[in-house]
Design brief:
The chain is mostly helical. The chain has 22 helices and no strands. The radius of gyration is 31 Å and the shape is extended.
């Protein structure tokens, strides 16, 4: 809708904006502010032609129809709007093309009588109406084909886009081209998976499709491997590449890919990268110490992550005194977040940790140290009368576990977490 709002600005105001760019600073300072940014829709101006006014009013009618989900009405108005593509106003053609593309596809997505042929027509028309959005329209077109199960057509669409060139390669065009390469390789992976599933009951070494699968693997792996050279979040591409490497038992390369994805500091922090590395290591029977190392970093990034329950389990199995204390901190960190407040497994894990911790002479000091920063707000989060009533009704077992931990975790608060009452009205 932001594009629509910009398009609905009267032409006179647009011309003023263009003139601003050539004025000096003193002239800009003398101009009045353009705020507010909401402009009247149908205000006549000296520089606005009847053509511009009629098309602008048409766009307003389209917007109203979209807002109220009147898709047939929007489609009827939309049949008139593309005449704006013939407008030669300086600097406005690309904006008209993108608005036409976005609105037309939105209407088709919701119109009950839309057909695949309609989608193909609008995508092809918009691709050849200009070059600025060519690659992104091709990518969106391939997504739509993929959603309708036309995988090979989607790949063909991206293969054409891969070979498209226009003028000098700008940074933006280079990035879009890389994205096209990556998604085309993802489609190669999907076809590879389909062939693998189809021939799952056939001896792979004797299958006539051996070479065919290898070809799709090579085509996919070239660009999926290249994706790691560009910092970003590439989860589906990495997972696809690793799955194929595992199938061909190239574990060294798979581990290298996952390590690079998780530990390359040029990439943005990504908890999923550490999850994927952990899952891979666990599938291949890696030592518990290495598994804990991966989960330790994940704990730093996301203390409330669901895999922290597994991390605490590994720490609890250790015989090292410090690991049991770490496990206590990990579970308390989880319970700092309301999403785990009623999770029975987490509270049971906390109880198990406390039991094992009580075998140490200084266990009270350890618990007190971990709870020092929590004593002012933890009772309000977990041990109020409301929690007693809620837990007693929804999960009596949870209430029992929590009640056994109240005096250990909050000994100075004089709380009594039970079905009877909660002492200390400050927390009720």
């Amino acid at each position: 809708m932001d594009d629509l709002e910009r398009e609905l600005i009267p032409l006179e105001e647009l011309d003023d904006d263009d003139n601003d760019s050539s004025d000096d600073n003193s002239t800009k300072e003398g101009k009045k502010s353009k705020l507010p940014l909401v402009y009247p829709v149908c205000v006549e101006t000296p520089k606005e032609t009847g053509f511009h006014q009629s098309v602008r009013i048409c766009l307003e009618q389209i917007r109203e129809a979209l807002l109220h989900h009147r898709w047939q009405e929007a489609a009827e108005y939309m049949a008139c709007y593309p005449q704006m593509l013939e407008d030669t106003t300086r600097g406005k053609q690309q904006q008209y093309k993108e608005i036409t593309w976005r609105i037309a596809t939105e209407i088709l997505h919701h119109h009950p009588n839309s057909k695949m042929e309609d989608y193909n027509n609008i995508y092809e028309r918009m691709k050849h109406s200009g070059v600025k959005h060519y690659l992104m329209i091709c990518l969106e077109h391939s997504f739509h084909l993929l959603l309708h199960g036309q995988i090979h057509d989607a790949k063909r669409e991206l293969s054409v886009a891969e070979s498209w060139r226009h003028g000098k390669d700008s940074a933006a065009q280079y990035q879009r081209t890389k994205l096209i390469h990556a998604y085309r390789s993802l489609l190669d992976y999907i076809i590879w998976c389909d062939k693998k599933h189809t021939h799952s009951n056939i001896d792979y070494s004797d299958s006539g499709n051996n070479q065919d699968m290898n070809n799709y693997f090579r085509q996919a792996s070239v660009n999926l491997k290249e994706i790691l050279k560009n910092p970003g979040i590439w989860d589906p591409f990495i997972l696809s590449y690793v799955e194929m490497l595992e199938f061909y038992e190239d574990h060294e390369e798979a581990l290298k890919v996952l390590n690079d994805y998780a530990y390359d500091h040029t990439f943005p922090p990504n908890p999923n990268a550490h999850v994927y590395l952990y899952q891979y290591l666990k599938r291949h029977d890696t030592s518990e110490r290495k598994l804990m190392k991966v989960l330790k970093i994940l704990h730093t990034l996301v203390p409330s992550h669901e895999m922290m329950l597994e991390y605490s389990s590994l720490l609890l199995q250790s015989e090292k005194k410090s690991d049991i204390q770490k496990a206590l901190g990990v579970v308390l960190d989880m319970l700092d977040y309301a999403c785990w407040r009623t999770n029975l497994d987490v509270w049971k894990r906390l109880k198990d940790i406390v039991k094992k911790l009580q075998l140490q002479e200084d266990w009270k000091e350890v618990v007190s140290g971990k709870m020092a920063a929590r004593k002012d707000w933890w009772p309000a989060l977990h041990f109020t009368r409301f929690h007693v009533r809620e837990d007693s009704q929804d999960n009596p077992q949870l209430m029992e576990v929590k009640a056994s931990l109240t005096s250990i975790l909050c000994p100075d608060q004089m709380l009594k977490y039970s079905a009877g009452e909660v002492i200390n009205g400050e927390w009720t």
